[in-house]
Structure formats: C-alpha cells, structure tokens
Design brief:
alpha/beta; Rossmann fold; two-stranded antiparallel sheet; 23% strand; transferase; SAM-dependent_MTases_sf; methyltransferase activity
C-alpha cells in the first residue's frame, strides 16, 4: 500500500489540499476539532495517515505536541519539507503495526483525517480501534474523519453519468478508488459500524457530517469556476453540520470517541 501512496504524494496537495473544495472541507473539520481541543486537556497528539502534513502543521501551530505518521515514506518526506517546528515529529509508521512503534508513549488525542482509515478492512479497523485505546491516556479522545457508504453526491454523480453499476459501489468491500491515477482498495464504513466496532473500548461523543452540501473533491473542475454556487453550498453546509443523522449521506463524517 505504501508504494501506491508514494505515487500520490507528489500531487496530493494540488489535487486536494489547495483546491477550493479541499480547503472548505478541511476548515469544517478544523471548526469541530478546535472545539474538541478547547474542551479537553490535550497536550500530546498522534496523527494517523498524515499525508503531506497539512493537519499536523496546523495542530502544532496551536502549540500541541504532535507525532504525525504515514505509511508512505514519500508522503512523510513531502511533509518534512514544509516545516521545522520543534513540537512536530513526522514518522513512517504502518497503521497495522500499532502500538508497536510507541512502546512507552501515551497520547491525549489520536486523529485521522479524510478517509485514511478507509484503506483498512473491517477487521483491520476493529483492530486499530482496540490498539488506539491502548495508546490513549485516561479519557483520551479519538477523532476520525471517515468516508461512509451512502454519499448522496456520489450516487447522484453516477446517476447523471448513467453509470448505474457504480451508484451503490461504496456498499461493496475492497472498492477500487482512484487516488491521483493510482488504484487503491478502499472500504467504506457508516457511523453505526464504527461505533459498534469501538463499543468495547469507547463511547461516542460527537458525530458531524463533512461534505453533505459541499461536494467531493473529484468535482473540483466543475465547481472551481462557480464561486457563487460554492458560497451557497457552504452556507447550507453550516446548517447541515447541526444534524448528525446526515453523516452517513455526506462525503465524509467526523466522529469523536472517548476512551472508557
């Protein structure tokens, strides 16, 4: 899997991070994440699947101590070139090897953004949640941004293209998703699946849709030249964010779990 994301590393910021849609979705995540950070005593943060380091840098600039990990050495290399913050450390780590790389460390919060966990199978996700519990301090927080199975934007997109076979593709296992020209096996999880897998070690604290009205990033070419439409969708998104039941229909959702 790391080789696939190595290929995506060079173009990821241009294809998502710096796009109109990418910025809007990331700001939605930050708005919810900021509230979580302010309400809890957070000092040490572990980021899983950090990509090119955009979120890790943002967290470190809020004066938290951040360890940011990714399976791809090229993603880590791109991230390291962006900053020299003393309270931020990037490491190449395979999520399936946790907690082995951190034998003597505990974290107040573990964070994974924009579908990094969708690269796991259901069994692997369950094991990750168990391992994450062991890495957290008492009452530690797990903040995950995951892609669900019922994204309405995607279903409408494939209907418009008359690609009826793909309308409900997210309901299948090991769906092949295109990431900057590279095919990645992807699994989609609705909020109830995640809370069920986590129920032995965590209780749910927060659930919010991310991208119910704001479209998926692959529609960036269409929306880039329509700023007024994007502005309207952004306003509607702020309203949608108040309704957790919309989470399984959004492009992503943010779920916060607290260690029992």
């Amino acid at each position: 899997m790391n080789a696939s994301f190595d290929i995506a590393a060079a173009n990821y910021d241009n294809s998502f991070t710096h796009t109109v849609i990418g910025k809007l979705q990331r700001n939605l995540v930050y708005r919810h994440l900021r509230g979580i950070l302010e309400e809890n005593r957070i000092q040490n943060i572990l980021e899983i699947n950090c990509g090119t380091g955009e979120d890790a840098i943002w967290l470190a600039k809020q004066n938290y101590t951040v360890t940011a990990t990714d399976i791809s050495p090229l993603m880590v290399a791109v991230a390291e070139k962006k900053t020299n913050l003393e309270n931020l450390n990037f490491r190449q780590v395979d999520i399936n090897r946790l907690p082995q790389p951190f034998p003597d460390e505990k974290f107040d919060l573990i964070f994974s953004n924009f579908g990094g966990l969708n690269c796991l199978t259901k069994t692997e996700l369950g094991q990750f949640l168990k391992n994450a519990s062991g890495l957290l301090t008492q009452n530690g927080q797990l903040v995950l941004v995951i892609m669900p199975k019922n994204t309405l934007w995607e279903q409408l997109y494939f209907l418009a293209k008359a690609d009826f076979k793909s309308v409900f593709r997210r309901k299948k296992e090991n769906v092949v998703a295109n990431v900057d020209g590279e095919n990645i096996k992807t699994n989609y999880f609705n909020p109830k699946e995640v809370t069920h897998l986590a129920s032995a070690d965590f209780r749910i604290r927060l659930l919010k849709p991310i991208g119910f009205f704001i479209p998926p990033s692959y529609l960036e070419p269409f929306f880039r030249s329509r700023p007024k439409l994007v502005s309207v969708l952004h306003s509607l998104e702020n309203t949608a964010g108040k309704h957790s039941f919309l989470s399984k229909y959004a492009d992503h959702y943010l779920i916060t779990l607290q260690k029992k």
